[in-house]
Amino acid sequence: MSERQPDSAPEITVIDDDNELLKLMVLLLRRLGAHTTTISDGHEALAYLANHVPDLIILDLMLPQVSGFEILQRVRNDERFDRVPVLILSAKVDPGTIRQVLEAGADGYVTKPYIANSFIDRVRLLLTAGRQHPSLSEPDLPAQPSER
């Protein structure tokens, strides 16, 4: 769990190359009283994360320069981020990608387009619960026709 004071605002880093989506996410995260830093490419994200450890990282998979998957792997290989949850926000909806990302250490996965309330609920949960042991987190995989 985070060691910040209960009344202090969470620090959330949002990494996505869609500027309009970044603006919308900042507005939504302000509802939680969060301080946000927005970053639009992979190299910039890695440079920022080299010197900052936020309370939550929201990460797109398809980024210019360095992919979100590579950023996730680097974050998970850096012990400074052991307690920092990573929420993936991506247009990729195939179960294989979702499973791969969750197995690589993501703590949640929300597909684009997303419903604002579902996104905020997921952020609240990750800020409250922090990182969980990977085996305790079940992926939200889209239903397959054969699973009906």
Query: If you compute it from the alpha carbons, what radius of gyration comes out, rounded to the nearest whole angstrom?
Result: 15 Å
Q: State the helical fraction.
A: 25-40%
Determine the N-to-C terminus distance.
37 Å
Kindly state the number of beta strands: 5
Which structural class do the helices and strands define?
Answer: alpha/beta
The coarse overall form would be globular
Describe what this molecule looks like in 3D.
With 148 residues, the protein is an alpha/beta fold. It contains five helices and five strands, in the order E-H-E-H-E-H-E-H-E-H. The longest helix is centred in the C-terminal third of the chain and has 14 residues. The N terminus and C terminus are likely disordered.
In short:
It is built from five helices and five strands.
Q: Could you list some keywords that capture this structure?
A:
148 residues; alpha/beta; five-stranded parallel sheet
Q: What layout of secondary structure does this protein have?
A:
Blueprint: E1 11-15, H1 19-30, E2 35-39, H2 42-49, E3 56-59, H3 68-76, E4 86-90, H4 95-103, E5 108-111, H5 116-129
Parallel strand pairs: 1-2, 1-3, 3-4, 4-5
